[in-house]
Amino acid sequence: MTGIGTETFSSGNGGNLTINASESVILRGNQSIVFNPNPLDPNSIRQAGQTTTGLTTATFGTGNAGKLSLSTSSLVIQNGAGITSAPLLTERNNGQVTLSGGKGGELSITATESIEIQGQAGIATATLGNGDAGKLFLKSGRITLEEGATISADTIIGPVATSTDSVATSINAFGNAGDITIETNQLMVRSGSRIGAATANAGKGGNITINASESVEVIGTSADGTVPSGVFTAALPGSTKKAGDLEITTGKLTLEDGAEISAQSQGEGDAGNIDINVSDRLTATDGNIITATTQSAGGEIKITAKDIRLRGDSDITTSVFSGADNGGNITITTDSLIAFADSDILAFARDGRGGNITFTTPIFFGFAFRPAPPGTDPATLDNNNRVDINASAAIPGDIQGLPNLAHITNSLTELPDNLIDTDNLLANSCIVRTSEQEGKFIITGGGNLPTRPGDASVSRYPTGEVRTVPSQSASRPWQKGDPIVEATGVYQLPNGRLVMGRECS
User: Fold this and answer.
1) Which residues pair with 170 in a beta bridge?
2) What confidence category does residue 119 fall into, taking pLDDT thresholds of 50, 70 and 90?
3) Is 48 a member of any domain?
4) What local confidence, expressed as pLDDT, does residue 457 receive?
5) Helix (H) or strand (E) run with residue 126 in it
6) How many domains would you assign to the chain?
């Protein structure tokens, strides 16, 4: 390894590692390491947690790894470099591999300006043993992940190659995955990069909390299109505990080009819950928000946003693919929900009760939307070029709060051609009115209207101030048969309104 680190090989705790750099920290490696590019594929993990270039605190024994703290203005990690804290494997002289029992150290990074992670590089807390992974905390003005970069807190299983044998040795870690907390103004996750907490075997899944005051952008997939950019919590095959929960609070949230936000379980544990709060607009274009399980209860999705726009094939779904457990509920609160193309909102449970879908919104529009009947196979609702909202299951769930638009379907009618004759609206009275004789003058058409909002009106008629008259001079109300006297000018009332009338004699 090239870099700086602290380690413990016994029951004693490892030392802490603290770095303070006033301007910048740059870590560059010369090869790819694999933190876990695909959070749902345990076979993608090789030599996880064993960073070749970077900063690390580790334990190979029963003692805990030390805390790693870094403070700087700008942090750049590239080309296989990384910052890690983890319990690791112990390889004895005979090639026997044992799992460490110590806990991973807490990892805390503050970069006032920016954190940039590029390529197969990352920041990670992990456990390959029985000890828990440490917590991971990041704080920066802007955080960017590109080209397969990772921020992760995982419990790792699967084959790991030893230095004495080219044959991989199987490991089964029992520690809990760590929690991830990110505080930033702007978060960008692109081109197959991910923020994730995955667990296997008996370990609990880690939670992910993201607070981005301005925006979160999750865009694209890996170069070969197999790994979506995203924010994930996952319980891998063979796990017995629940996947972690995921919470995002931001000003604007953008999902594009295959990106995902998901909480999934492929084991016995339930899927995690997703809670999204957006003060302005949530926009998804071919992006998905998903909770899914293969054999246990589905996680819930709660979304609160000022406006929601779904374009392309953008789905919000909770799914249970087998077993009698219930599907997860979906709750959406927004001022307006507009969905186009093949965007769907689905709560599905194959053998259990479907999740409920609850809307709190005054405005909904779905392209070619029409409710699908109960029991509809959700597979038939995808790629049908229309918006679908469905809670299918052995026992269907409820859909509540969706605005009823049936009353406006085919309700357009032709307007009459007869326009108001303004000449007939001129009354035989002067402009000065009294309480005994009040009326209205309405004129239609676009003549003399301002060309733009805020512009002054231009009148063809002379204008003047309205003179008051004593109340006792109230005139007799106009009656049918009286002559109609045309207006002689436009006058401004005390409240600023312009009216047409005639001079009082």
Assistant:
1) 159
2) confident
3) yes
4) 64
5) strand 122-127
6) 3
